[in-house]
Predict the structure.
Amino acid sequence: MIAVANAVTYCGARPVLVDCDPATFNLDAESLPKKAGRKTKAVIAVHTYGHPADLGQIAGFCRKRGLRLIEDAAEALGGSFQGRALGTLGDAGIYSFYANKVITTGEGGMVVTDSRALAERARFLRDFAFSKERHFWHEEVGYNYRMSGLQAAVGLAQLERLARLQAARNRNARAYRDALEGVPGLNLSHSSQGHANWVFGAVVEPKFGISRDELRGFLARQGIETRGFFIPIHRQPAYQRMFAGERYPVSEFLGDNGLYFPASSALTGKEIGYICAMVRRARSSR
Ligand SMILES: Cc1ncc(COP(=O)(O)O)c(C=O)c1O
């Protein structure tokens, strides 16, 4: 997701890309040592679509190399890794409360950390880096990344609903899985313990008979909106020059062939049944 590279670029650092692990669709822990160089300061592990990245191996590598680990749990609120909440295993974790997330405040998000110093630093930077000693004095360039009191009030009310919203997402994922398991050429491997089930994704492989885009077109004609997986960052016009000549075959394959299905926590079992029946019909329509 482009925000991950942008966050690095905004602070004057250079993002380094690592390909995806085909099993988790997240950062490939095996490729990490090859990409972490002398200047590397931190690793961002993104729990894409709510699926936990391989934090065991990634955190181990960061410890060994003295690197900071930031978890991007924007899509993974409610998920876990070995029983611990996603977003809480690294030096810092972030969540997004944008309108399409598990809980929302319209816009906005949250940083969590165990470190007092980091929390203090984040509070300082989000509020124009106002000096504590002197009014309207700024020794650094800060940001206006504040959440308003109104949004925070909505967020607190949303937190009370988190368990219910999460249960609905888990129910959706189970219903999709039960109905689509075993469809030839539809790879649903993107699932494991602790998945936050923000969305339910699938990768369309050649055995499915029609392409991902043909499937999306067929479903659109039945009134079913789907989204393709993220287009890899090195292919984005904003970053093409920075990553010219670099190849990330797994990300490219996922970007070209992955899609996810409607994911609202308000979906009914009947609606999911219809969507899955149409996926099967698309296959036999070739
Ligand atoms: C993985 C990931 N990281 C970061 C963000 C950015 O979050 P926000 O929109 O709250 O800035 C998003 C999505 O919005 C995301 O999906």
About this structure: The chain has two domains: 2-157, 163-284.
